[in-house]
Amino acid sequence: MTTAIVPGTFDPITSGHLDIIERAATLFDEVVVGVAASAHKNGTGPLFAAQLRVELICQATAHLPRVRVASFDTLLIDFVRAQKGDVIVKGLRAMTDFELEFQMAALNARMDCEVETLFIMSSPEYMYLSSSAVKEIAALGGSVKGLVPACVEEALLDESR
Ligand code: PNS
């Protein structure tokens, strides 16, 4: 039984994240989506509370029986151990992702050499999609249809009301 951990901030989950989770679910016996609860990006806290991010991912992955979702507020490597994970799986988009992902994979390997990080190349249609871009489009009144699961579209609309 091989358990993959797919970690991220997921603020909010996008169609690109979902694509990676779906593809990981075809490769591993079990997938645990790990939501970094208090992650700060670009100097600001998350738009959605950790519990809501978890709920949105649960709804978006309801069709995937091998997937479960949990939040964590520790080092990723400690979450991987707590979940008895075998590998960390991350999506890799355009070139800009590479340096940071390479650094995180190397540091995680240094902290636990038994946990491998595997990258799944982003599908071309999601190569330039990010949670930050989605939030900006939604905040300025643009449509995010197709860029995020339907439940997230609703949550973004609620947020802007
Ligand atoms: O959404 P992201 O930016 O791809 O996710 C980044 C994340 C949450 C995987 C990363 O920030 C992380 O692992 N955070 C947990 C704290 C930690 O372990 N930091 C050291 C990583 S080398």
- Strands ordered across the widest β-sheet: 3-2-1-4-5
For the secondary structure, the number of strands is: 5
Q: Compounds present?
A: 4'-phosphopantetheine
Outline the biggest β-sheet. 5 strands, parallel
Structural class: alpha/beta
Low-confidence stretches: none
Beta-strand residue fraction = 15-25%
Give the SSE string.
EHEHEHEHEHH
Question: Percent helix among the residues?
Answer: 40-55%
Number of helices: 6
Oligomer: single chain
Basic shape: globular
* Average pLDDT level: 96
Termini, distance in Å?
Answer: 45 Å
- The gyration radius over C-alpha positions equals 15 Å
Describe, in plain words, how this protein is organized in 3D.
It is globular, with a radius of gyration of 15 Å. By secondary structure, the protein is α/β, with parallel strands linked by helices. It is built from six helices and five strands; from the N terminus they run βαβαβαβαβαα. The mean pLDDT is 96. The protein has a five-stranded parallel β-sheet, with helices on both faces. It is 42% helix and 19% strand. The termini are far apart. 4'-phosphopantetheine binds next to β1 and α4.
